[in-house]
Amino acid sequence: MKTNQKKAWLFLAPTLIFVTVFSVWPILRAFTMSFQSGPLINLEWTGFSNYQYIFSDPEFWRAIQNTLIYAIFAVPVSLAISIMLAWFIFSKVKHSSFFETTFFMPYVTSTIAIGIVFRYIFNGEYGLLNYLLKAVHLPAPNWIDDPSMSLITIIIFGIWTSLAFDIVILMGALRNIDPNYYVLADMYGASEQEKFWRITMPQLVPTLAFLLTMNIIGAFKIYTSVYALFNGQAGIGNSATTAVFYIYNKFQMVGTPGVAMAATVVLFLIILLTTFLQRKMMKKIGRY
């Protein structure tokens, strides 16, 4: 037994070293740096001054507010659309593998590249979206250069980019549902809506819990979309700033790594608490 344990630890050693160096150590280092100030090569211990700074910084609270609004709207809307599309493809469309591959393509495409394309789609003067809106006599706002529209633009883009991963995972979950459930439901004359709500949705709860967790974490870490849509900025007057963009700005642009790491620790705790509450909620839903 002891020999097997030694061999097991030997095989696990490369992975444990990799995880420690690239995951555990950066977290511990970030926590330590959050109590230090000064340039990166000459940090000095200053206690809780960085936390006092970010908690009194209106820009930090705006970043947290924007991130929360993005997560509250983008995550459930994206998940709801993904469920509808996945169910439609699974139940109504023949050769669903073709559509599944098509939907998955944005997931393996660079967010920066997609963001550049969407920057032209959202353009207020010659963008495709405003062209279509004008064609049906609807208001055509300035999606990129209007501060009041910046967050809405990010939410729309975030919903679109989330669909690819969600649909593919949901399609896999739908295939794993025992078809005998639907055969019995047809025997008793169940409608399509009854089959969806009484069979499909309960079976999808574990998958939805996984997707909800991943999407919430991804929403709180949103940065690339903002960078791509607004050409390296956070919108007009930082109207589209997010928590990670705030961290990037303080670390890379302003040169205050201690402040950036303090914001990182706060964001980590927010994600941890939100994920914990979401998991508890999904467990209660799964019991019914």
Automatic annotation (TrEMBL):
The chain crosses the membrane at residues 9-28, 68-90, 102-122, 151-174, 204-223, 258-277. It holds the Pfam family BPD_transp_1. The keyword Membrane applies. Its main location: membrane. CDD domains: TM_PBP2. It comes from the Bacteria. PROSITE patterns: ABC_TM1. The keyword Transmembrane helix applies. It is found in: Cell membrane. One of its GO terms (cellular component) is plasma membrane. It is a multi-pass membrane protein. Residues 64-278 form the ABC transmembrane type-1 domain. Keywords: Cell membrane, Membrane, Transmembrane, Transmembrane helix, Transport. GO terms for biological process: transmembrane transport. Belongs to the binding-protein-dependent transport system permease family. This is Sugar ABC transporter permease. It comes from Lactobacillus mulieris.
